[in-house]
């Protein structure tokens, strides 16, 4: 009897099952049944009329209802979790401090190398340590002038005012990763102040933050140079290994004003800063490799109020802020800010008070953890460093660097869109790929194609060249698993192919074949015939077919596959026309069939 | 210590002092208006002038006849300061009392020093050449950075990017010494430190 298969369905329901035809018996999930019973306010003493409704219909209705419920619940769940109504009441404010390693050969105030060179054993731990880095008594710091260059470029890229005179200060605290007992930084007089960072929606800023404007400006309070600490690794329960190679490596600290109001904007700011620093060769190691770290300061306040009246560097009316230290990925920045914001709102809505403390974040956590409270606050006892003279920066150097600064990513993106008619996505991709080498290749190709074809505006062919450089070449790179450095195609060869294509001397298919051919040849000039030669030897020139030749070819293929013909003619599957086009191209001689014409012919023949 | 305004003196000593010395008010007490007596020729009797000291270095320390000085520093603050300076805490109450009284004497000294009027003066950070010429020599401009700029190359023809050539360290003497030679404890190429239990 069927009731043995239905373990928990009520007995009267088993009777309902018996009413249905054997082939349709299914084991209903008890929950649906129970829910249905409850929702219908049914008791065990159901009137007989209910049992007559077919089970399948009931189950189907139930499933539909459950789906509708889930959808409704899903929407309210997201609002319940704090996304919408809480944020209508509470406003988030974030300020970011970024520490980025400068791209220099030597450390900030000692003569040890800052980078690993393959020649010596620089890769070993504790092999790039100067006596001052190890804090031997009697050693003195000496400012290494070379570190000024990338720092200045960073300051200029963010539009900061470079201060002629700036100082060096000591920030005292004891830790085994700081042998001297203090860090040399620029607390009282940083070398650059008052810059700004400009973002727009394509950088990942949510529309709410843009507030209808084109651009969002985040102020940068200051940029200062400072030392990095040594690296410690935890081995065993309480033992640490210390590697002083990193001690004293120059960093710049970029401090933004608290003008960021959403976690996505914060992540976008960090991304943008990293991109700008990379483009001017200031800081070339990214966040994922540990070359850039972010500390964020998070506070919330009720919209329309002025929080607890805190202020920071001219931005006032803020709530009490907490600091989250050492975030090392973009996702961590976003997630940590969301978690901290939610925690602060929860505390404030419960009537509590936020303490100004330092918190930490680990990947995969749901809440920030407290590292240090107010009572554990460190007194850094800042004082000017007596060993280092003030830093005096010459105006001639600043002028020179400003005039020779590489184009920043924003400007590049705009130029690519305006002058070469690339889409935003393509422009962004091209800028990021292969450290800019792909973009250089693209520009060379466009210029030479334009010159060859004597076209006045580059916008006409910009898009086509962009497609070939990004997608065609990119496809070949992935298929053959090569990196851009191994690419043997020269800009001239690509120019020749594209010129032939543009002049309709070859078809697109043939052009792609030529590209693939040249891609695989050896780089030696003997092995690389020019494009013209290849066309000649392969008989690849477009010899356009006449109308009749198209019709003949089309009819031949249609005769070979009558089912496909039927599919298109009778079942109306228009997409299958392209199958015919493909067959024509394949069966026709290489370089003769043009897809557009083939398609037109097929459609005429089909349409009748 | 010279009073605020020092008239010409027979020895011509005061004229040879730099102007800044004249500008600094050195007295801790207001200058005595009646102090400077001149004879008929406008000369000062130096002996008489210097016979009565107006200040003594003993004022920098608390006077011995008073009670042992209390500075208002609590025991909790003392421990906080010792912790900041990584100094060991006192072993017993007697040692703590001794530390507190020493600290009180030191604070008295500091307060006396702070009575000097230093309005509008930048603290001296170190002895340097603060003349305009000195600043010009210390300026880092194109000349100073020339060698560094030569260590860079331009990459690309149309999209020009700056790249620092790796390894251009200006021939800095590679200090050949063994950093780990100073290590109290080591493991391979690392310094070993015992910390608090992690987690």
Automatic annotation (TrEMBL), chain A:
Question: Which source organism?
Answer: Friedmanniomyces endolithicus
Composition-biased stretches (Basic and acidic residues): 60-74
Q: Which GO terms describe its biological process?
A: glutaminyl-tRNAGln biosynthesis via transamidation; mitochondrial translation
Q: Which reaction does it catalyse?
A: L-glutamyl-tRNA(Gln) + L-glutamine + ATP + H2O = L-glutaminyl-tRNA(Gln) + L-glutamate + ADP + phosphate + H(+)
Broad class of where this protein is predominantly found: mitochondrion
Q: What is its EC number?
A: 6.3.5.-
Q: What does this protein do?
A: Allows the formation of correctly charged Gln-tRNA(Gln) through the transamidation of misacylated Glu-tRNA(Gln) in the mitochondria. The reaction takes place in the presence of glutamine and ATP through an activated gamma-phospho-Glu-tRNA(Gln).
> Which stretches make up the Asn/Gln amidotransferase domain?
440-606
User: What is stated as this protein's family in its record?
Assistant: Belongs to the GatB/GatE family. GatB subfamily.
What name appears for this protein in its UniProt entry? Answer: Glutamyl-tRNA(Gln) amidotransferase subunit B, mitochondrial
Q: Name the GO cellular-component terms.
A: glutamyl-tRNA(Gln) amidotransferase complex; mitochondrion
The record's subcellular locations are: Mitochondrion
Enzyme class name: ligase
Automatic annotation (TrEMBL), chain B:
Mention any Pfam family matching this sequence: Gta3
Q: Where is the composition biased (Basic residues)?
A: 157-166
> What InterPro entries does this protein's entry cite?
Gta3_dom
Residue ranges constituting the Glutamyl-tRNA amidotransferase complex subunit Gta3 domain according to the UniProt record: 67-124
Q: Where is this region: Disordered?
A: 156-177
Sequence ranges of Basic and acidic residues compositional bias: 167-177
Q: Which residues form a coiled coil?
A: none
Name of the molecule in the record: Glutamyl-tRNA amidotransferase complex subunit Gta3 domain-containing protein
